[in-house]
Give the backbone structure.
Amino acid sequence: MHSNKTNKENSYFCYKTIEKYPVIIGATSMVYEFVSEGRKGNVSKLIIYSKTHLHNFYNLGFGGKDKNKGEINDSVITANGDSEKVLATVAATLDEFTDKFPKAMIFATGSTKAKTRLYRMGITNNLDSINSDFEVFGLTAEKKWVPFETK
């Protein structure tokens, strides 16, 4: 995604229609933490925007917070019954992050095919409102960036 902010009032889906969790924002605006509350109890989650070797290109990493190491564990499936609220919370951090880094381009993919599909469905279902703030691209099998399409 690439920031295309022109209208804060018309910000993307999670602010208007989907409840999100309160987030603790790290000092650099690159680390975000929140707690998922659901049928399996409270589960700490981390969102980390990491620099890549490309200028202004960041990877969005997301997953459960490993209790022992304090790092992201993106291979765990929480199944806490709140995936929509969790994804809305992750999406909300894009706004904060791109306020701090307005030229940022952000790459995100799931750690499994199922997670990638879930993220794609979330973008697809909310593409019109997301496009009011961001330009969204997908990477093809041929390794070319193209505007994100709903299928």
Q: What stands out?
A: The CA atoms of residues 33 and 46 lie 5 Å apart. The beta strands are 2-3, 24-25, 31-38, 41-51, 57-65, 72-73, 105-107, 134-135, 137-139, 145-147. Residues 83-100 form the longest helix (18 residues).
